[in-house]
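Feature request, filed as a ticket because there's no other form

It would be nice if the structure record came with a short human-readable summary line next to the tokens. Right now we just get the raw output. Example of a typical job, pasted below so the devs can see what we mean:
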Amino acid sequence: MRVGHLGTAAALAMLAACNQPQPQNTTVEANVAIPEASGPSAPEPAPAAPTAPQSPTPPPPPAPLVAANVAEANAAEPTAPDYKSVDAALDVARQFADLVSARKFDQAYALLGGRGGFASAADFRRHFAPYSDLSLTILDSPPPNSEGAAGSIYLSVQAQMSGMVAGRRVHHPATITLRRVNDVPGSSDAQRHWHVEGFDDTVK
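Raw output as currently delivered:
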């Protein structure tokens, strides 16, 4: 009877032990970095070669002239007056007056298309022989007087003669008459330009 009792007690003890909770594993695995296997080290990059200094960038070529610049450049250049204009006529009159003042009478006479009432170049020279210190000057006023006749245009330019005659200073008005053909059929280029038609310094 006693042995059976002990066997029962041992069985109960074993059963109680099985019913107890099992202890939990509280071990925390640490994250351990595993070093990678190191192979041969890569070669370091070679230093960059020094670069040559760059030359300065040349300036861009000048821009082509536009129409406005061309017009401005053309306006800056002096242009000869139109051969039909009053200015062209005055240029011829001044040329004639300068030749007379310089006593270049043969060249002045060559500008006289109509000989201006003088029979010859010798006659023209004799007309100015009494003068010394001779001067023939174109006047700015009155303005030239223009008129037309028989297909021609005449322009009268007022001037002043001055000089020494017989030991005294004289001044008197003069008129230089210019003429050009008014573009009539058959006229030459020379006829359509102004020329000196006559000279009158008669004291009235």
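Something like this underneath would help us a lot:
Residues 1-6, 25-35 have pLDDT under 50 and may be disordered.
The first strand starts at residue 112 and ends at 116.
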